[in-house]
Design goal:
The strands form 2 sheets. Strands 4, 5, 6, 7, 8 and 10 form a 6-stranded mixed beta sheet that branches. The protein has a 4-stranded antiparallel beta sheet with strand order 2-1-3-9, covered by helices on one side. It is an alpha+beta fold and 282 residues long. Helices cover 35% and strands 14% of the residues.
């Protein structure tokens, strides 16, 4: 396991070379939101491509917290995170890079046949192929193959070997979603007696719209634990917006569509929604 001083030294070195970094905790995942930012109550970080206003100085917003500012990386808010970190993460898109994450030998064999050779970094089970250029990130573009670039993070495993190739069309094409012939199945928000008639907290339609948009984004940006992320997001939406009757089938359909785009089935979406309602007593 990488020690805290080693992680911090690596992070500072990468930041000096223009690679935005962030500490990763056990499970090789970013640190969660602080209390003030939980559920994106803060409005989100400005660099998350949203009209956010959060100025949290900690490692609070996953890939959007990644930075090249040396003073921030070594500052007290980050110090505790580095002491707990198990490895260093980085934001490929922020460094002008795209990582094709090949998770096993079969995926590597496919890449050698289908993609131009580029710099390769060994991972625990496979390889990261790194290309020069940025694109949309997308998981599961084919079995055991993920793309990590814009609005994503990757684990730093070393500089790798081989010359880096410009991002080819063959990789960009992997992230193009094929039109689906399946329609998401919306789950009607039928509140039992005693629910759906509470005081409206939305104040304006924009408040509810912003909440749904942030929920869609949270699901879309998830790079691991998709099932858990979908459930927690549904739980947060219902907790905040589910008791006053303003939440409609159209809103739920948007959430289901975002989840299905990450590979969730209609059944999993319905189960997650039902379980979230049950947990809240709805």
């Amino acid at each position: 396991m990488t020690t805290a001083p080693d992680s911090l030294h690596t992070a500072l070195s990468l930041a000096t070379s223009g690679v935005p970094v962030l500490p990763l905790c056990r499970g090789k995942v970013p640190f969660g939101n602080c209390r003030s930012c939980a559920g994106n109550a803060c409005g989100g970080r400005p660099n998350m491509k949203t009209p956010g206003t959060c100025r949290c100085s900690g490692v609070c917003h996953a890939w959007a917290a990644a930075t090249t500012e040396l003073a921030v990386i070594a500052s007290p808010p980050w110090a505790a995170a580095w002491r707990q970190a198990v490895c260093v993460g980085y934001h490929p898109g922020g460094a002008g890079l795209t990582v094709v994450d090949l998770d096993n030998a079969e995926a590597i064999a496919w890449a050698r046949e289908a993609l131009p050779a580029t710099r390769a970094v060994p991972t625990t089970r496979g390889e990261h192929w790194i290309y020069q250029g940025t694109m949309t990130s997308r998981n599961a573009v084919r079995p055991s193959v993920d793309i990590k670039s814009a609005m994503s993070y990757a684990r730093w495993l070393g500089p790798g070997t081989g010359p880096m190739t410009a991002l080819p069309d063959a990789v960009r094409a992997l992230a193009v979603k094929e039109p689906s012939t399946l329609r998401p199945t919306p789950h009607a928000v039928a509140m039992p007696a005693g629910f759906g008639n509470g005081e409206c907290r939305h104040r304006t339609p924009a408040y509810l719209e912003r909440g749904i948009t942030m929920a869609e984004q949270r699901i879309t940006e998830a790079s691991s634990a998709i099932h858990a992320t979908v459930y927690r997001t549904f739980l947060a939406v219902l907790s905040t917006h589910g008791r006053c009757g303003c939440l409609t089938d159209a809103h739920v359909t948007r959430l289901f569509t975002a989840a299905q785009a990450k590979g969730e089935s209609s059944r999993h979406c319905t189960d997650a929604w039902t379980n979230a309602r049950t947990a809240l007593g709805m």
